[in-house]
Specification:
13 helices; Nucleotidyltransferase, domain 5; 359 residues; alpha/beta; elongated; 3 domains
């Protein structure tokens, strides 16, 4: 029957701590003698390194006094190399298969270039290369665009309606008729005016009113408008209008004679001139709807005050909440005192505007 305990374990169990220390010292001397007969440099195999590292786990710093096969510094290097190998293996096992995801900042730049231009994915890749970004491929650019529901191909043809308005905003005007009832001894009579809106700056001009918008009247308003646009220092190349029969051939002829192109929108499509339609709605809700007009001079006065207020004082969301004639934003106030804010009222309080008190 094999003994239950190994003879060496039985020996260690029977000796005192002092005896154990003497035996360890003897084994170290014996090990030195044996090492002296071996080559000066002993290269451990990976399997041997693994065995020694496993045996060292519970010894700690006392290993410095015990180790003899290599230097303590070399043994610490073995530990670092093993830990680095385990960390690399863990990171590799956790990473999803395939190429790493493109960084978010590069993805955002791809989308920015696509939304601000009509470029295809090849053209976008060229712009990225010009910026020094080479970590993305042509196919990856295409995938990013498709993931965000953007056509990866270049836009052909005349482009969208929004693109047309954006390209021509600085020289494009929209016009439309607006009417307002006037009380007379014969009852209600409609007065007509022509409204012209500049798409880029959102400036407006409202013509004098008339009861009879015939060809002579609309032609004269066209000439008046061109003089006003010149005074505003705004170039006019395109005028958009609907198919109202009040626009005569003479009206179009006034513009064509100066090189202005008339662009008529298709029937039953008011959204093509949504900007001037929205201004007319604002004019009626904020101004005309609050007055009972009793004379043509009365309506002309109201519209003249309102258009000046709209151009010079009324904030507009498309202008970063500044009036159309503001070229720069005022200096920011660190603190506000109510006494420093002045209110200017016009048209009996219908139009109010606020400004800083002059220093």
């Amino acid at each position: 029957m094999k003994p239950i305990l190994h003879p060496l374990l039985a020996l260690l169990a029977s000796v005192t701590r002092q005896d154990l220390a003497r035996q360890v010292a003897y084994l170290k001397e014996e090990n030195k003698i044996l090492r002296a007969r071996l080559p000066q440099r002993l290269v451990a195999t990976p399997r041997e390194k693994k065995r020694l590292l496993k045996a060292e786990r519970k010894i700690g710093v006392q290993l410095r006094d015990l180790i003899s096969i290599v230097s303590y510094q070399s043994f610490r290097r073995w530990i670092r190399e093993t830990e680095a190998a385990h960390a690399a293996k863990d990171s590799t096992s956790k990473r999803k298969p395939g190429r790493p995801r493109t960084p978010d900042d590069i993805r955002d730049l791809v989308l920015k270039l696509a939304r601000e231009n009509s470029w295809g994915y090849t053209r976008i890749l060229g712009e990225l290369r010009k910026l020094g970004i080479r970590s993305i491929s042509r196919q990856t650019v295409k995938v990013i665009l498709k993931e965000n529901k953007i056509d990866p191909g270049p836009k052909r043809g005349k482009g969208s309606w929004d693109e047309f308005l954006k390209i021509h905003a600085d020289t494009l005007w929209q016009c439309d008729f607006v009417s307002k009832p006037m009380w007379t001894t014969r009852g209600l009579v409609d007065l007509y005016m022509l409204v012209f809106l500049h798409l880029g700056s959102r400036r407006v001009w409202i013509s004098p009113c008339t009861q009879h918008p015939d060809s002579a009247w609309v032609s004269q308003q066209a000439r008046n408008f061109l003089m006003v646009a010149e005074d505003m220092n705004i170039e006019t190349t395109i005028l958009m209008r609907d198919n109202d029969k009040k626009y005569s051939k003479e009206f179009d002829g006034v513009f064509k004679s100066t090189g202005v192109k008339i662009k008529r929108n298709t029937p039953e499509s008011p959204n093509l001139r949504a900007h001037v339609e929205r201004f007319i709605q604002t004019l009626k809700l904020e101004c005309l709807g609050k007055f009972v007009i009793v004379a043509e001079r009365h309506l002309n006065h109201v519209c003249r005050i309102w258009s000046r207020h709209y151009n010079e004082e009324r904030p507009h969301s498309a202008r970063d909440h500044l009036p159309p004639e503001f070229t720069t934003a005022p200096d920011e106030l660190a603190a506000v005192r109510i006494d420093d804010i002045v209110c200017t009222s016009k048209l009996g309080g219908v139009v109010n505007s606020y400004s800083r008190r002059a220093a």
